[in-house]
Amino acid sequence: MSLAVGSPDLDYKQDVAKFGLLGPVKTVCREDGALLLAFSKEGVADDNDEPATHFEGRVRCDTGFSGYSECEFDELGRIVREYAAWGYLGVYTYEGKNYFPSHKHEEISDEEDAPPQIVEIDYGYNPQDFDTHGNWLVRTVNGWEEKRIITYYE
Question: How many structural domains are present in the chain?
Answer without folding.
Answer: 1
